[in-house]
Amino acid sequence: MTSVRRGLVSRLTRRTVVRAKGFGLPARKVLIAVIAAASLAGLIDVAAVTPAGAQSFTYNPLPPRPKPAPVAHDNQMLVQATEVDYDYNNSRVSAVGNVQLFYNGTSVEADKVIYDQKTKRLHAEGNIRMTDADGKITYAEIMDLSDDYRDGFVDSLRADTADQTRMAATRADRSSGNYTVFENGVYTACAPCKDDPKKPPLWQVKGARIIHDQQEKMLYFETAQLEFFGVPLAYMPYFSTPDPTVKRKSGFLMPGYFPGTTNTGFGVEAPYYWAIAPDMDATFTPRFMTRQGVLLQGEFRQRLIDGSYQIRAYGIDQLDPGAFAGQPGDRQFRGAIDTKGQFALNDKWVWGWDGVLMSDYYFFSDYRLYQYRDPLGSFLLLPTEALSQLYLTGVGNRSFFDARTMYWLSYSGNQGQVPVVYPVIDYSNVLNYPVFGGEFSYQTNFVNLSRDDAKFDPITTLANTAGLCTTVSADPLARTPSQCLLRGFPGTYTRLTAEAQWRKSYTDPIGEIWTPFASVRADAINSSVSNQPGVSNFLPVGDTQALRLMPTVGLEYRYPFIDVQPWGSTTVEPIAQIIIRPNETYAGKLPNEDAQSMVFDASNLFSVDKFSGYDRVEGGGRANVGVQATTQFDKGGAVKALFGQSYQLFGLNSFAVKDEINTGLDSGLDKPQSDYVASLSYSPNRTYTFSVRSRMDEQTWNIQRFEAEGRANFDRWSVSMIYGNYAAQPELGYLTRREGILTSGSVKVAANWVVTGAARWDLEANKINQYVVGAGYVDDCFVLAANYVTSYSYSAGTTPPVLSHAFMFQIGLRTLATSTGSSSSGLSGY
């Protein structure tokens, strides 16, 4: 044993001094005895009694990079120090100078550490830095703990956790290995100021006592006050919150304020969160209202191995149903339930659902429930319907599948005019091998839907007031009255579409690019149109079966010319496209549910089929021609321009055929020579972006559609502006020219302060009809935001939309609470 211990002692340098009291032994024997006695205590690993790398420990308020801890045996304490002193008479071991101590995953650094073997207490003094196994760092001047760190006290304490929260106290007492009481404690989740660490943080909570229960993971504050920049703003005799390590814990959440209306009265919400299990939780949010009583709200959520789902329920036994006299809410009980979920079958397939049921269609809007809120709780979007659906989606490397059934719950009360889709199925695939040297793809679409009542859209003032839409025309050929549109037909509609496409590009020796393409599309259609008043003016009533076939062949030609200069390069590319196909059969005689939008501009000039959906298909021979030019500057920036026109070569022009909603009319394509379309974009650098899109009449060159957009992004601010000018489209219901400007911007006025705003200016009416103004502060520990918003909401029948004014406020203290509030009012009309 002696030879072994001499080997261990030889590791000590000449700077290390080891003293023993009560022995009259030579120095070398004293050193051996000290280490032998300490090792017999079973606490100190003799192999670790070596000097520290530095001569002294300098306090650093910022935690240094963690050092790899020495490997310790079970129940052994590793010590490194400049000097180790063993008092045999009193059974004490003292380590002085750059002391580093490691025990059970916890490290202690200090100027001096004394371990009493009799009392099993560990006493540390001077520049103490203790790091526990969870990453919590505690700074102190005096620390007295049991050797297992379960009990003791700390003076002049400051603690930094791995979650970037901080606590400080004049004294902390620890007992039972679970409770820590901080006297005159301070808690914050804000980082100290880099320039002045002594400066008060943005916010902090001071308490006469702060009790940390590590078993319950709770912080209890007694006689607490909330301070911002060192200034007290709120006093609380008592409050509690989960400690920063808790991600979810049962308890009451921050209360909320409901501004209410004259029908409901003012309200206060008191949410309670229940962490049922690691994979599920629930939130109960009763709302107490002065006029209608208690609105109960509950939400249950569960996450499973392959997905998650949630269920929300609402209910109220109204104290004063008469407040909604003449409205859908005039009933004793009102409520709703909604649910959604999504699950993965494997890495390529998911299925899920969304579902909503309500006692009456105006329940959500009367009580301003979740559908009316954005993720921040603001009343920004006021939808007119809720979607219930069941879906299955699969995504492959070159394929896509989606099947779903859909039911829209109307908030306007016109439920019979809303279709039920059961189902709609889409599948597309691009083969990963060439067919005749080119790319081959195919797609299918199947839809089946039904609607109870016709949805008419009066497009003139006379039709809106005189009810002309439901008047049956005496002329059976007059299927499209000029006063109305049929947005949705009553009856059942089924369509199956299958299409295959092929294309291949060739480049000849002089650089010309030739791209032949071909496709064939087939539609099998069955429609059953109910003979309701006025419907026969638009569609044949009764049952109709149709088989529509559309083969297409075409050729696209491009010949790029490239000019290279010292300042950059320019590419000018003439483009011509010829498409040959038969006429569209059953044009205007079949329901059109998914191809109701039609905007002709430079983006779809070279589209083979310019209709947006499947219910209409473009037919007849057509030529699309244009020229595209791109300039790329060597020092950055690019200019891209496109100008062109489309020509109906032969056959029936599908865009000139009237259907029940006049799709294609007034589009610029409804004549043999289309309107001219052009686009121009310029990006000089990453800061600025400008673009212009225009459609001009092919005879007069009058502007039919014009949009100009500019964006700029700088270090501190960004702005965008869109100007739109659209000619009247009386066939679509736009009787006058529309012109307006939409602007938005944000300015970073300080390091963490942002001011935002947006406005829409109707130039025809010469008024600003929508705007948003807001300001916010965001950093790593605090959120403050305020917004003033105007938006439109819609009610039942033909009542004009209501322009709502809302003010939203949000404040959040990281690890403590986030609270939102809002107030709103409404003005009828535009």
Overall description:
Strand 45 (782-793) and strand 46 (802-813) form a beta hairpin. The protein has 4 helices and 47 strands. The model is unreliable at 1-73, 371-381, 476-480, 794-799 and 825-830 (pLDDT under 50). The N and C termini lie far apart (98 Å). The chain has 3 domains: 78-249, Lipopolysaccharide (LPS) transport protein A like domain (lipopolysaccharide transport protein A fold), CATH 2.60.450.10; 250-453; 468-675, no CATH class. It is mainly β and 830 residues long. Helix 1 (2-9) packs across helix 2 (27-40). The strands form 3 sheets. It has a 32-stranded antiparallel β-sheet that branches. Strands 1, 2, 3, 4, 5, 6, 7, 8, 9, 10, 11, 12 and 13 form a 13-stranded mixed β-sheet that branches. Strands 28-29 form a two-stranded antiparallel ribbon. 4% of the residues lie in helices and 53% in strands.
Task: Quickly list its features.
single chain; 830 residues; mainly beta; lipopolysaccharide transport protein A fold; 3 domains; 32-stranded antiparallel beta sheet; 13-stranded mixed beta sheet; 4% helix; LptD_C; cell outer membrane; LptD_2; LPS-assembly protein LptD
Let me know the number of strands: 47
- Helix/sheet category: mainly beta
Strand % is over 45%
**Largest sheet geometry:** 32 strands, antiparallel
* Percent range of helical residues: under 10%
- Poorly predicted regions: 1-73, 371-381, 476-480, 794-799, 825-830
Overall spatial form:
elongated
Q: Please count the helical segments.
A: 4
Radius of gyration in whole Å, from Cα?
A: 38 Å
Return the average pLDDT rounded to an integer: 82
Number of domains: 3
End-to-end C-alpha gap: 98 Å
Protein name: LPS-assembly protein LptD
Subunit structure: Component of the lipopolysaccharide transport and assembly complex.
Domain LPS-assembly protein LptD central: 222-297
Domain LptD C-terminal: 333-753
